[in-house]
Each structure stands twice: as structure tokens, then as C-alpha cells.
């Protein structure tokens, strides 16, 4: 079984690489080497934008981590990560993307330089790079290696698997650029969608002793409280990882940060051939996020009904255990190839974005201001190599974490809190000066570190986590409010002059057609209505 699985795995992975190469060769190339490498020559159509967005986001840190959290919670509260993502992506399509494309920005922090100053842009770029090297890249490598090791029952040390994935993933990003990353994402996305939906379907068949509908009946009639999406505590009276009050505080803002300002995500939409194509791609991906819980949460709930046949000693092992239990031997290699695609996608996307930020902001901005496009691209490739090596070294250290998904989100907040406040004010008001952005950034980071890593005890149950301390998502919200509040006060006391506002309002010619998609608002309304409907249905089922 192992031999055949490995052969099918290698063949499927190789096929994606082969077709990616040939598709990229046929795509229109930009005369500008920098734009070609970092933005794909702004030639991406909406299906490629959507596919790349989804697969950049959807990887093993979610498949493994979120299913593990749902299993540990004994509740479907993790659906919130996908449902609120759909709302945030609507904000990206309608509000943020037009701002980014209007002046042809290559990075999201470039918008902040226009709105505030170069130092603000550099500080935010540095925070993004900190997040990529300490959190995102190592987590992707670790969870991906854990999943593959479990599926193939490999006897190799975890660090060896991590290194292999890291080398493969970096090759796409370093040598192919954004266009290669986006195309491979789209191809792998099709496979992941099919394979990811097949796992819960097959698990329900197993649960129902060969009948899908019997399994579905068991899911809805045996411990229906597992399906709760709006709750503070689970069936064991333990506080869940996402209590319902957090949906109205930190959860929404962390989603807006990730989907509307995060370079690794927004870079895909910024590479669209027009505003309309970018909006269509983002909104299609938003609609597909509503399917996400079927892959990211449902296997964890099904596993709660199968604990007698699954070998699970740690919650992050849940997804791999379900996959091994339900997949026929002959298909494990194919699914592993699909999973490998999602791992490589998230890893190479983050590498490409990090290289973009470093090359354009720090190398071109400070180290070599007269650098040619070719020099910038070469520097980006070298930086990507160094970042890949660092991530490979850090990833094995994550094995000691109890919940990898919670770790990911908590540490993300350390740099996302100060960033999201600056972006929102940068779009919402013109009067806040650059000094306010810098001070707000420091206040936001310090406040979040305090509320998250210092246990605030004795808080009301409404705001508490499982240990009775202040829940980190509420801490996120408080830190955000403090950061924004400081910036608004400074903006009131020392606002930008009319001359400064006029300079920041000056825009370079847009590099793409800025005509919005005519159905963008109607599509957004439909997505929001569907999201509310899903919550209502699941709440009814759990009652």
C-alpha cells in the first residue's frame, strides 16, 4: 500500500508542477521584471485570483488545527473562522481593493506610505515579516509534515519531512514568482476541494455503517449539541475556544486584518488584470469560504462519534486519524498529493510575499535605492532562500504546542492589532498624522502583549476563557480600541494640514481598468444572507 501510495503521490505532485510550468509559459509577460515577478505582470483572471486566495489560506494549519480545535471544543464554534472570513472578504472587494489598485501598489504597506510616510510603511512591513518567519511559515511546515507523516505512517524524523517540504515549496516561490505560485495554487485548489469534501462524506458513510444518510442521521440526532455554533460552554461545561461574545469583538477585526491588509493574501487580488476581475475573484473565494466548514470543522465533529475506532492521543492528530480511517488504501497517495499542494501553496505564497516586502521596501528603499529591476528580483530570491531555511529550523520546535491553531492566531495578534488599526484609519480619515500611526502601533502591540500573555483573572464569565482569564480575542478587541483611540486623539490635537492631505491624495495612474464589477454588491448581499442562514440552521439543529 505504501509503495503504491508514494508512487501516486509523486506522480500527482509532478503533474501539477508540469502543467504549472506550461500554463505560465503561455501567459502574457510584463516588460517590467519587478512587476512580472512580484505581481504576475497584473495578468491574473478571476478564477486564478480566487483559486490562489483560497489555497493560500487553506492549508494543513487549518485542516489539522481547526478540526483539532472543534474536536476539543465538542462544538462547531470554529465555523466562525470561516463565516466571518466571508464578511471580511466582502470588505476587501468593495473597500480595500479599489484603494490598493488605484495607484498600482505592489504591496499593501505601500498604501500606508502614501497615506502616512515611509517610516510607517517600513514599520508595518517589518511586522509582517516578523509574523511570516515566526508564525505562518513554521506552522505550515509543521502541520503539513505532521499530516503526511500520519497518513503514510512514515518512520522518518519529523525534521526531515519538514526540510523536504520546505525545499519543494521554496522552489515554486523563489524561481517561479507570483504567477507560478498562483497557477499552481489554482490547480491544487481543484484537487483540494474535491478531496477535502470527500473526507467528511466518506466519514459519514463509515459512521452510518455504509450509509451516508444513516451517518448524517447519527450526526444530527446523537449529541446534537456538538453542532452548536453560538455558545459559551460545551456539553462538559467547559468554555469553548470561540465563545459567542468574541464574534462581536476581536473575531471580526482579526478577519479584516487577515483578508484585507495581509500582504500574503491581498497580493493575489492586487495582481488581477482589472478591478472587476479582482472583485469577482475575491467574492467567489468569499462564497467558497461558506463551504469551508465542511472540510475544516465537520471531520472533527464526526471524529467525536468515532473515538472508539480512532487512535487519537492529541487533538491535532484528529484529521490525520480520520483520513486514514475512511480513505481506501489506493487513494491515500492521491489525497496526500492534494494535501501537499495546499502545504506548498501556503508556504510558497508567504515566501513570495515576504520577498516582495523585503525587496521593495528595505532593499530598494534603504539598502540600494538605485537598484535595477533585475537586482531587486535577485535580492528577493536570496531573501526567500534565507527565510525558507529559518522556517525549516523553527518548525520542529512547535511540536510542544497543545493547539497549533490557537497558537497561530494568538501570536498573529501581536503584529496584526497595530496594523489593522492603521489601515482602517488610513481609509476612513485623512486627518490622522504619521506620528499618530507610529504611536498607535506601539500602544496596540504593548496592549495586546499585556492582555494576551499576562493572565487577567477575575473577569466576568461573559469575557472569560476556559481558565477563567480574559479571553485573548477580547484582549485583541480592547487593544485595537486603545490603538485606534490614541491615533484619533493625536489626530484631533495635531491633525494633518490641508497641504499634507493634498499630497497624500495625489494618485499615480492606475495600472489596470478600474471599472468595478457590476454585480459586486448583489453578490455580497447574497453571501451575507447565506452566512446568517447557515448559523440559524445549525443553531436550530443543535437545540
UniProtKB/TrEMBL annotation:
**Keyword Ribosomal protein annotated:** no
**What Gene Ontology molecular function terms does this protein carry?**
D-glucose:sodium symporter activity
- For this UniProt entry, which segments traverse the membrane? 6-24, 75-97, 124-144, 156-175, 187-205, 242-261, 282-304, 330-351, 383-401, 407-428, 435-456, 476-493, 523-542
Gene3D superfamilies given in the database record: Sodium/glucose cotransporter (1.20.1730.10)
In the bilayer, the protein is annotated as: Multi-pass membrane protein
GO cellular-component term (any): plasma membrane
**Organism from which the protein derives:** hydrothermal vent metagenome
Keywords annotated in UniProt: Membrane, Transmembrane, Transmembrane helix
Question: What compartments host this protein?
Answer: Membrane
Supply the InterPro entries for this chain. Answer: Na/Glc_symporter_sf, Na/solute_symporter
The protein's matches in PANTHER family, at most eight in alphabetical order, are given as: SODIUM_GLUCOSE COTRANSPORTER 4, SOLUTE CARRIER FAMILY 5
Q: What is this protein called?
A: Putative solute:Na symporter
Record's family? Belongs to the sodium:solute symporter (SSF) (TC 2.A.21) family.
Record carries keyword ATP-binding: no
Q: Principal localization?
A: membrane
